[in-house]
Amino acid sequence: MKKPKFGIGLIGTALFLSVSVPFLVTFMTKRKGMYLMNFEYLQSMRFYLSVNESYRLSYMRATPFFVGLATSFIVEKLKENKVKFSYITVFGGTFIVSAVCLCAQLYGAKFHPQHYRPYYPSEHALLSVVNHCTWSVWGMWCCICLFTTGYGPFTYVINNRLFVVLGRLSYSVFLVNITVIMMSISTIRSPTYFSVSSLMDAGIFDVFKSYVMALALYLVVEAPFQKIIKRWIG
């Protein structure tokens, strides 16, 4: 990099804006910090279309992208300086970061319709930021630990071919996950109480179905087109 300070400043500015813009927009417009698309979609399609004003705008959920850029830069700098952490720091930090991120995501259960909760602009503004960056922060920490120190014997598991395959399906999962969730919710025919355990069970089941659908999409669309594009470009 010819101008490393300029690059650091640019990434830092972009990351700051990706965090501050959703907070300010949500706070000033008094929007919801987390859209429950399953309920709102089933109740009113017209209301669901209003979600496009916030959810589909790239600058409202661009934090993971810039966190990924910052992670790659941090990892390279740490490797250049030969920085390594102790295994206590690696595993202890991973446990703490995982617990905090999981609790932050499960906090969203308080906003379901059966839990009456007054609207607090600052709370929703903060949730709009946290909701899109929790697992990005978790991935950032794990990548830093993996590429600088490693996870001991678990490093071989992470480098397993299965993990590589699941990584290749990430974009396809991103494309199909909302559709899978909508299909799961639409099959409910009786009143359901959403507790922490039931949400975790539904989440695990939806993740499995999303990867199955993503595999089909990858084999039918993404993989063939990748070969065609390589032939054209190569």
TrEMBL record:
Keyword Cell wall biogenesis/degradation (UniProt): no
Keyword field contains Membrane: yes
InterPro entries in UniProt: O2_lipid_transport_reg
Keywords: Membrane, Transmembrane, Transmembrane helix
Membrane spanning residue stretches: 7-28, 57-75, 87-108, 135-157, 169-188, 208-225
Protein name per the record: Nose resistant to fluoxetine protein 6
Species in which this protein is naturally found: Macrosiphum euphorbiae (potato aphid)
